[in-house]
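User: Continuing from earlier, I have the next pair ready.

Assistant: Great, send them over.

User: Here they are, in order.

Assistant: Folding the first of the pair now:
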Amino acid sequence: MAPEVILGTEYTVAADIYSFGVILSEMSTHKVPYSDALNASSGRALSQQAILSKVTSGALRPTFAAAAPHWLLEVGSRCLSLDPTQRPTTLELTVLFRFYHRPFLMSRDAAYYIKHIPMLPHPEENGYYAVQHRSTNLMATPGWDGPPTRGCLSTIFYMVAPVMFIHVNRSEIAHFWQAGSAIRYVMVNPATLETTELVLGPDVHLGHVLQFTCPGGWWKGAEVLDTSINFGLVSEAVSPAFDYSDTWLVEAADIPESHAPLRRFCRPTGWSCATEKEIQANYALTKHTASQ
């Protein structure tokens, strides 16, 4: 029962939200709230009257398991706010569960996406990828290595699992969060060494962004934030379309001492992909393209 209802205030929807927070607590701890609340002086279980008094003052609140996921702690804490006006509305809860509950319960298994998209180990950057589309509309790319023209656009799924090695791509790449953990991206403009960091993920109220674009020619590395999930799935749109001749890894020797922490994103010496690097023709003809 919500504290304000115990005090005799009119029952509102906010009281139901509090009750929902109590249910979340029970799901987390597998215990009835306050069942282990003890009197500090006697060490005996609190009486019902004492529990009600502490609940109304805010001195006693339902708890959550220490290992509870961050979304459960945040949503539960808001639902159990002593101030009814600070509790989320039913609409807010619906939105929160879209961004918290579904990814945690349904999207935490990297193997599910690797199997069902399906995805291949990335031969250079670590993680996994699957090509989805390569435009047949061509554009000239004078001065670039490789073929004289490229498609206007290509798209892929890419899985950071759990680190993407720092590298460069000539093309601009737009990134869109899909599932799993939020991902921290670090980008560096090599001309000025200015560093940009952001988090691609679902929690906009925490400062995450749902999409961003990395300028062509910039260094880019990434890592998942939630190591209990240990992967983050994104979509990428590349323009001009991706070509292996347009990308290269950033070596530790390329990174100045002023940016030494970025070296942890460099590909380790001796690292090898689980599969042989695909040649460009196989990349273009892969069954993941939209022409299938």
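And the other member of the pair:
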Amino acid sequence: MTHHGRGFGKLLLFGEHAAVYGYPALGLALTDETIVSITPADNQQWDTAQIPPLYKPYLQNVLDALEHELTTMGHRQAIPHIRGRADISSTIPVAHGFGSSASLCVAVAQAALSALEAADGHAGSSAASPEVWALANRLERLFHGRPSGIDTGLALHQGITAFRFDGSDLPQALPLQSGSLIVVAAALPRRASTRELISAIAERMQAGDSRTAAVLAQLGQLASSAIDLLPHTSDAAGISRLGTMADQAHAALARLGLETPQLQRCLQITRECGSAGGKLSGAGGGGAFFALFHNRSRAVDAARELIARQAVDAATIRVLEITNGRSRVIDHGGGSSSDV
């Protein structure tokens, strides 16, 4: 029997870096996804020979970490019974800030726990169960060192989600509704890994850098305000206010040294096309970014202008329409639309 797992891509809207220190965050699940399939084999060995070279080292490392975590959970004897052929497919750009590692960890956790329960003779658990999230977030340590739970939470939960921390291992995930939003999202090559960027800020905080602490507090306050505003973005005024908050958050992230000249240029192009505001999304140093628009036509024009000026890889562009907390791709260079 083959067991499947699925993790969504993500777009972090507000709260990056600050969330590591307990401030709230706001993000959106994308329609892009990673699917992992595990088919237990009689020889009780992992078979990853068919995995594309781009994904093979990531998947093998996650499978190694999976066995360690399952041993810690008391399932050591069952591990040989879930080993077998592993397959992966994904539409999420790797290492671009759209949550490729988190989606992989969620997909592996779902498939593995399903296989484990089948090996134990039990019915499969919910694909979005707390156990899946907890295991996926432990696997995510491979990539982020100290994951907040937000990326794996967005990979697991559909729609727009607010995250608040109460001292537990994982944050509270609160599904949100929204007015109608139009967003252009795209990505640039990264100059450093998420782990490296988070570690650099951690070093400043450990050294007692009050300036860094103040910027993180500002990012947390903007995230909290955006969470409160989101249900009221059905008119131009609400979208303008959210865009201003995005600009303010980006300026704060730039003060942390997370902006790049290429990212600055991309956001300037979106402003020239009429955006209400925009910012980097995620760890920074390149990676994902987004811009908010009042209408679809200007957003599509901005996406095409980014391509025309060769500012980004066209494969990373998504024009999203977000309604009632769910997103739909309405343009990404001529592809079809989809909903999450």
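Worth noting for the second one:
DSSP finds ten helices and ten strands in the chain. The chain has two domains: 3-176, 181-331.
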